[in-house]
Design goal:
The structure holds two protein chains of two kinds. Chain A is built from three helices and 26 strands. By secondary structure, chain A is mainly β. Chain A folds into three domains: about 110 residues, no CATH class; about 180 residues, no CATH class; about 100 residues, no CATH class. Chain B is an all-alpha fold. In chain B, about 35% of the residues lie in helices and about 0% in strands. A two-stranded antiparallel sheet of chain B has the order 1-2. A two-stranded antiparallel sheet of chain B has the order 3-4. Classes of the chains: A mainly beta, B mainly alpha. Chains A and B meet through strand 1, strand 2, strand 3, strand 5 and strand 11 of A and strand 4, helix 12, helix 13, helix 14 and helix 15 of B.
């Protein structure tokens, strides 16, 4: 097995060491406050292959453990520098896996990269605020960056400079969080198109198309963000990630059994993003967002919208969204992206009262392609440019209705959607009711759902699903809650499917 | 008094009242006495002291009278429901401040007996007329429903009070009754005057609340004149007035010290009779100063935590209250958590790195963005069954949360729906893609998939490996070398979009791996890019 017990132990030890060191750091200071959170989730359900088998038995146990230490340097004082530390560790185990799925010795079942109980450190950093008279802040450790470029994570340092000139500057550098790194990482934040992981135990020629070896990838970036101008929010972001791992050039050998590889620094992703929003409390809001991919040299995302506060209770809006898939610089699929998907939509939000509001939206998605869908494939060679340069646009339509009614101890929410187009349709609605009792000591959940979908390309996959979810929660003591949810769906495809979710939430404050 | 805490404003006329010594100005006493005399005379002339309607009737209790016309006398025995209704009816958080109209009748000669007839002071304006916008607090809107019920919970106003009369006719300043505001540094401070302060003019004695005395011969001295729903003989009890403390940090002193007048936050209370919740500040009014450019706002910091309660430790805003969940108003950065907020929150988060973190910790965000338990608010129920339609037809934005190779492909491989994968078990199952008639038969061809890939490339990548594409798309030299052992070779099918040649050089310099996966280094086409 590539994921030996030793590796798991090492990762676990590292995680514990991280949390302990954070605790130790905190204990050295006086006046600190610490918060320990733990959440345990147990999920039991099955997934059926479209062929009928295999039946994947998911017996999942997810455990998160969080530690936050506030005011490490002393008691909180408004305006004074603050130092805090945060860490969140997670184990996501699936005890329903077949052991053969993790063993390269059974290639008929082996899934490269599959782990039974991966551990990952979601974030772990020390943060300082308000240094140098409030001008400087920083973060060091594993942390997130959220901006127009997306939701991203890296290990390193970030400095935040708050200037008196209506803008702030963020500068950061480190290593992108990637799957398979020895320090408790996931592949969630990598660019698309490449799957990196732990190849220990695998020969170089084994499963080259599925799993690449992961090595630290240097990354850096900056952001300029407006500050202190209440009607305007803008953020300009730049980020570059560099691949340094040894990667195979092709999954095929060269005939002699050798695998050609590439080494050296090369771009994984390099993007520039800009997001802006202008708002007026009486009139409405304008927003725009753009991402330019410097590696692909194209605009990969472009969006904009306007919302008008027509009355105190009615907001009308319209938006435009363009999206073109881009991938890691190592991925060939960058060169398969042709035209993006454009979404035009309108929305209306009606706040009937503070408790009752409704939102409606609808629009069209436009898929633009080179060539006619019927004849395109017949002219596959590059010499047939005449056909490829003709443009065809297909349109799908969608509409959503959502609304909620809230009262102090509960709520009811309706979410309904309708999407229809050349690839079929999806219609459906969920009605969700939540109610708390005994001042929140008990809570209940009831979801009723009805969904119908038609697969335009594979009619045998069309179905109507009826389902419900019933849940009960109980606050055992303050900040400690147990919950149990029962989910049941019925459809032609899966027959009866059940899912059980049990949770335990725990928070301790020092 | 049923009024929000109000610091003083400069008095238009110096006034004097008898009992509140601190604010009495002796030289004004004659004017005060004259005013009281005038009130009594006016009351006699206009018939205010005439009989009232039955307190238990809708006109008498649940709704304020629409006019000052004399009403039939009340039956003493019907007063109890009136008191009850008054207490509950006045809990309304309506901006107009509708208040019950139960009163004390002097007609039956019994001090404090219920009556109605004097209709003032029961609502902001006579007849419960809507309060014009210019009299409401700065930032209030015509149909805003009053201030946030989370910040300012619902009140029960069981007191009649006519601010306009006290201010404009009697010349009292805000400070005359709400003098405690000047030194108040907490929003929970009680800034209503003690009832003894009323004694000077109202001929009552509240010094001992267990034995309050009143002068039944004067209308304004009767208990029921001010205490709505007061019932004679009920052990001198009055309905409880409830003004919950605001869920807010606020220092009246800090604002008064900066010479900020009452009306700058509370509107023109002196033009109104009863001051209701509607005269409490609006956040948009606060932000007039607190979000002004830094040189102008001075110490009025613009952070959310300046005013909002925070969770300690952590510093994020407290959002859960017994009255409900605190969410931003729509006009604030367009961040109202409307039912479609999930769809558009990225536009707010992308442009402002701080706004979301005012209330949410990273853990809140990761529950969805990097979660391991399916969040119900993101995907509809039974999404696992319908997700293929969504992935092919929907927004293609699965990648905003899911890494295709590890999340999508990993599961698809396990379920046996990929071309490349654990082939032993799933061999001979037949095609997963649509029937040949739709996918490959003439006039379409085996390469029709290329058009589908243009339409939605992410749908392809969520199942297929690079290897699946290279078999045909790599050039002959590369593909032939790699697949020679299997009797196939790369066919060099060009997947590049039109216009690709203009940008291939830069891409090649930045990362040649993807190029060399299909092209031999000596490929003439590759040389063109160099």
């Amino acid at each position: 097995m590539p994921k030996g017990g030793n590796g798991a132990l090492q990762r676990g030890a590292l995680a514990v060491a991280t949390l302990l060191s954070a605790s130790l750091t905190a204990s050295l200071a006086s006046g600190y406050e610490a918060e320990v959170t733990a959440r345990s989730d147990a999920q039991f359900y099955t997934l059926q292959s479209p062929y009928g088998d295999p039946l994947l038995r998911r017996r999942r146990y997810t455990q998160t453990l969080g530690l936050t230490v506030y005011d490490i340097t002393g008691s909180y004082e408004p305006g004074a520098p603050q130092l805090s530390a945060r860490a969140l560790l997670r184990m996501d185990a699936d005890f329903g896996q077949d052991a053969r799925e993790r063993s390269p010795s059974t290639p008929d079942r082996y899934i490269p990269g599959l782990e039974q109980a991966p551990l990952d450190l979601m974030y772990a950093y020390v943060e300082g605020r308000g240094y140098l008279g409030g001008l400087l802040g920083f973060r060091a450790g594993r942390q997130y960056v959220v901006d127009a470029l997306g939701w991203w994570s890296f290990d390193g340092g970030l400095a935040k400079l708050s200037t008196p000139a209506y803008f702030n500057v963020d500068i950061y550098g480190g290593f992108e969080q990637r799957g398979g790194l020895p320090w408790l990482s996931t592949s969630r934040f990598e660019a698309q198109g490449v799957y990196r992981g732990d190849r220990s135990g695998l020969a170089a020629g084994d499963w080259p198309s599925f799993l690449d070896q992961s090595t630290p990838a240097p990354a850096y970036g900056f952001a300029l963000e407006s500050s202190g101008v209440h009607f305007l929010s803008t953020r300009l972001s730049y980020r570059k990630v560099i691949n340094r791992d040894e990667v195979r050039l092709t999954p095929f050998d060269d005939g002699s059994g050798a695998i050609q590889v590439m080494k050296g620094d090369r771009v994984s992703s390099e993007r520039l993003g800009y997001a802006a929003r202008v708002s007026h409390e009486s009139l409405g809001s304008l927003h725009g967002e753009a991402v330019y991919d410097l590696y692909n040299q194209l605009v990969s995302e472009l969006s904009g919208g306007i919302d008008a506060y027509v009355t105190e209770r009615l907001t009308l809006g319209a938006s435009y969204d363009y999206y073109l898939p881009t991938f890691d610089g190592d991925s060939i699929w960058n060169w398969f992206s042709h035209n993006g998907q454009t979404t035009l939509s309108g929305r209306a939000v009606l706040e009937l009262s503070r408790r009752f509001d409704v939102a409606l939206s609808g629009g069209a998605r436009l898929y633009t392609t080179d060539g006619d869908p019927v004849t395109y494939g017949a002219y596959q060679r590059s010499s047939q440019l005449a056909d490829r340069e003709s443009i065809k646009t297909l349109v799908d339509h969608f509409g959503d209705v959502s609304g909620g009614y809230r009262w102090p101890s509960g709520s009811v929410h309706l979410g309904a959607l309708a999407e229809t187009g050349q690839r079929g349709h999806r219609y459906g609605a969920d009605l969700t009711t939540r109610q708390r009792f005994d001042q929140g000591r008990y809570d209940t959940l009831l979801v009723l759902s009805l969904h119908d979908w038609e697969d335009g390309l594979r009619p045998q996959r069309s179905a109507t699903s009826v389902g419900y979810v019933a849940g009960l929660g109980h606050e055992l003591i303050e900040e400690t809650r147990v919950g149990l949810e029962w989910e049941h769906h019925t459809s032609r495809l899966v027959g009866q499917r059940y899912r059980v979710l049990a949770t335990l939430d725990l928070t301790l404050l020092d | 008094m049923p009024t929000p805490p109000q610091p003083t404003v400069p008095s238009r006329r110096p006034v004097a009242i008898e009992r509140p010594v601190a604010i009495t100005r002796r030289r004004e006493r004659p004017r005060q006495l004259l005013a009281l005399l005038a009130i009594c005379l006016a009351a006699l002339v206009t018939g205010w002291v005439q009989a009232a309607p039955a307190p238990g009737s809708p006109q008498g209790a649940a709704k304020p009278p629409k006019s000052a016309e004399p009403k039939p006398a009340a039956k003493p025995g019907s007063a109890a429901p009136a008191a009850s209704q008054a207490a509950h009816g006045s809990a309304s958080s309506a901006p107009s401040g509708s208040a019950p109209g139960a009163n004390v009748s002097a007609a039956n000669g019994s001090p404090g007996a219920p009556q109605s007839g004097y209709v003032h002071g029961l609502a902001p304006l006579p007849g419960d007329a809507p309060v014009p916008l210019h009299l409401r607090p700065p930032g209030a809107r015509a149909d805003d429903g009053g201030p946030s019920p989370i910040i300012f919970p619902a009140q029960k106003l069981t007191i009649r009070f006519n601010h306009k009369k006290h201010s404009q006719e009697l010349g009292l300043t805000c400070k005359a009754c709400h003098d405690a505001a000047a030194s108040s540094q907490k929003s929970s401070d009680r800034l209503l005057p003690s009832p003894e302060r009323c004694d000077g003019c109202h001929a009552t004695d509240h010094r001992d609340l267990s034995a309050v005395t009143a002068d039944a011969s004067e209308l304004i001295g009767q208990c029921g004149f001010c205490h709505i729903g007061y019932k004679e003989g009920d052990k001198n009890r009055v309905a409880r007035l409830t003004l919950p403390k605001p869920n807010l940090k606020f220092s009246h002193k800090a604002h008064i010290d900066r010479n900020i007048g009452c009306e700058q936050c509370h509107g023109a209370v002196e033009e109104l009779e009863l001051a209701t919740r509607d005269q409490l500040p609006r956040m948009s009014g606060c932000l007039k100063c607190h979000q002004a450019p830094e040189p102008a706002r001075g110490d009025a910091k613009g952070q959310c935590t300046t005013c909002h309660l925070t969770e300690r430790p952590g510093g994020t805003l407290r959002t859960q209250f017994p009255q409900g969940q605190l969410t931003p108003p729509n006009w604030l950065h367009n961040a109202g958590h409307t039912p479609d907020w999930l769809e558009r929150h990225k536009y707010v988060a992308g442009a402002d790195s701080q706004l979301c973190s005012s209330c949410h910790t990273e853990k809140y965000c990761t529950d969805c963005h990097d979660g391991r338990v399916r969040p119900r608010k993101v995907h509809p129920n039974d999404f696992i069954s319908s997700h293929p339609i969504a992935a092919r037809q929907g927004g293609q934005r699965c990648t905003s949360c899911h890494q295709q190779q590890s999340f999508c492909v990993g599961c698809h491989q396990r379920a046996g729906v990929t071309l490349s994968g654990p082939y032993g078990q799933f061999a001979g199952r037949g095609r997963f893609h649509p029937p040949k008639a739709e996918w490959t038969d003439p006039p379409r061809s085996a390469s029709h998939h290329a058009w589908e890939a243009q339409r939605n490339l992410n749908a392809c990548v969520s199942c297929h490996q690079e290897r699946d594409c290279l078999i045909c798309h790599s050039t002959a030299a590369v593909g032939g070398r790699g697949m020679s052992g299997m009797g196939t070779s790369g066919q060099g099918v060009n997947p590049h979009p039109t216009g690709f040649r203009s940008r291939c050089g830069t891409a090649l310099r930045k990362n040649a791996r993807a190029c060399l996966t299909c092209h031999d280094p000596a490929d003439p086409q590759l040389r063109e890019c160099r």
